[in-house]
Amino acid sequence: EQEAQLQLGKKYFAENNLGAAMTCFRRVNQLVPNNLHVHFWLGLVYDQSGDTATALKEYALTLELAQSVKMDCAELRINKGNSLAKTCRDRNEPILEYPRSIIIDPTNAWAFLGLAKCLISTGDYDGALSALQKFSILGGHDQSLLLLRGLALAGKGSLTEARTDLRTFLALTNATTNNTRPEMLDLARKVLNEIELMQ
Predict the structure, then answer these.
(1) Per residue in 4-60, pLDDT tens?
(2) Which residue in 149, 72, 74 sits closest to 107, CA to CA?
(3) Quick one: how far is CA 1 from the chain centroid?
(4) CB neighbour class for 146 (10 Å; exposed up to 12, middle 13-18, buried from 19)
(5) Can you list the residues of the chain whose pLDDT is less than 50?
(6) Which of 4, 90, 116, 123 is deepest in the core (most CB within 10 A)?
(7) How far apart are CA 80 and CA 73, in angstroms?
């Protein structure tokens, strides 16, 4: 029964039916307490639901359970880093999770994207550009790539290149019907306006 509930929960999660997914994962947790897979999925559901603090608790428990059997997971480290980046005032704390993920799986492009975001927030623009380049080399595709590269280039003072990336980002998001977050668009426009005022 627990395996069937786990698979059903994953199916509901893929369909974005978070309430049903949560019910399934909680049932499995009652049947098999301290199952690291269940806590990982509970963390994903909480994260997707916007309850980052509870997601972090589930991710921490998953890591604790995994380490007790000498396991670790690149995806879990990335998710934990992303959650910490949303909630943590100390920008260095989430940065630690991405290199751990890269050690586990150096081919996971998403670790480099998360690392780049954090490095931009700490002012390490060269490090961010290097991480974004690795993300691209590994085949990573994300709508925020041009925005992040534009922000890092602007931070470095490479204003012409930054302007090109930010304009391309805005043109692509205007040309497609995607779910770009409004704050990303606002940030791109703000930085682009500042660049154009300086030039």
Answers:
(1) 988 999 999 999 999 999 999 999 999 888 888 899 899 999 988 999 889 889 988
(2) 74
(3) 32
(4) buried
(5) none
(6) 116
(7) 11
